[in-house]
Amino acid sequence: MAVLETIMAANAAYGVIKKCLENGREVKDMVGHVGKFLSAEDELKDAVSRKKKNPITAITGGAEGDWDEFQALETIREQRRELESWCRLYGPPGTWDKWQLYQAEARKARKAAQKQKEKEREELVEMVMMCLGCLFAISGMAAVIFALGRYVEKW
To answer: With a cut of 50, which residues of the chain have pLDDT below it?
Structure first.
């Protein structure tokens, strides 16, 4: 379902960008929509790669949406080429190149944030496992002491 929502977001952002360019609005007014379009493209690529890597999809033979996903990626790729030409044609010189640099930095920041989130999750899992280990160790020691007390007939 996330794939369809992503495709819809990309198409909506593309429509707004195209209409703004046709009406002659400033390119700087459309940067938010361009960002939504390009982030939707990244999300779609990530969703497709996650689907391909999913072991359940491999077991069940989930290839039913492959053609739709391929078509969506091709459509977005074509729309991206059109956006590039529009930004180069209607925007100030270097607008697309600056956007590419900004997008690369944003991608790096998102990756760093994702790695940090994964690291925090691993630390949380490790802490929970340590707590469970301590709990089992204390329970085991209590059980041994109880069994020893029963064996010596103190209880």
So the answer is: 1
